[in-house]
Write a structure and sequence with these properties.
With about 200 residues, this protein is of the alpha+beta class. It has two domains: about 80 residues, no CATH class; about 100 residues, H-NOX domain, CATH 3.90.1520. Helices cover about 50% and strands about 20% of the residues. It is built from nine helices and six strands, in the order αβαααβααααββαββ. Strands 3-4-6-5 form a four-stranded antiparallel β-sheet, with helices on one face. A hairpin with an 8-residue loop joins strand 5 and strand 6. The termini are far apart.
Length: about 200
């Protein structure tokens, strides 16, 4: 029997009540499990979730619909516990996989050969994918930029860790190479923003 982390799922659900993400994120997570670990692993992960979340994720997930962000957070933690022995690295892998699936599929029109345009569009369309918080983009150089997020309730660290993998893969899909993505500030540390510094080389 797999155990969830010490964080109480009920507290997690209550803390983020009213905050939602698009189904594309959840759908990519479920596909990640199936592709990398098989159908049996999907069942194993779902069995560790609170009943309400398990029932939600056992139904078809629709890309354009809203789902509680707590479902994503609980699912990510379950994937880490069940399939990665609690490793934090899997969160970056999930972000990488999500970018590969979504930016090569439903959201492929958002990708740009001009990486700066893509990052700017990411900030502009922030609330298309999550209905909470604000985002802004700042160009630092031809091959460097900041993307900053400000949240009313700060998501857990694994949410930001997945962002590292997401932006790294997204830059590659937009034509960049040797992408370096760093978290340079964090609201959990009383900074004003959760900030990603993104640098790359052109092909």
């Amino acid at each position: 029997m797999f155990a969830m982390s010490a964080i109480d799922p009920k507290e997690e659900i209550q803390k983020y009540q009213g905050y939602n993400i698009q189904g594309s994120l959840l759908k990519a997570r479920m596909l990640y499990i199936h592709v990398n670990h098989g159908a049996v692993a999907v069942k194993q992960v779902l069995e560790t979730l609170p009943q309400e979340t398990k029932e939600l994720l056992s139904k078809p997930i629709y890309i354009g619909e809203w789902y509680p962000i707590a479902a994503l957070m609980l699912l990510d933690r379950a994937i880490s516990n069940v399939l990665a022995s609690g490793s934090d690295k899997v969160f970056e892998d999930l972000g990488t996989f999500s970018a590969g699936v979504n930016l090569s599929g439903a959201y492929e029109p958002l990708t740009r050969k001009n990486i700066q345009e893509f990052l700017e569009l990411t900030a502009v369309l922030h609330k298309t994918y999550q209905d909470f918080g604000d985002a802004q983009y700042l160009k630092l150089a031809n091959n460097a930029a900041l993307v900053q997020f400000q949240y009313p309730v700060v998501p857990p660290e694994n949410f930001c860790r997945s962002g590292l993998g997401y932006f790294r893969r997204a830059v590659e899909l937009c034509g960049g190479k040797n992408a370096l993505v760093r978290k340079t500030s964090c609201q959990r540390q009383n900074d004003l923003f959760c900030e990603f510094r993104i640098e790359w080389q052109e092909y």
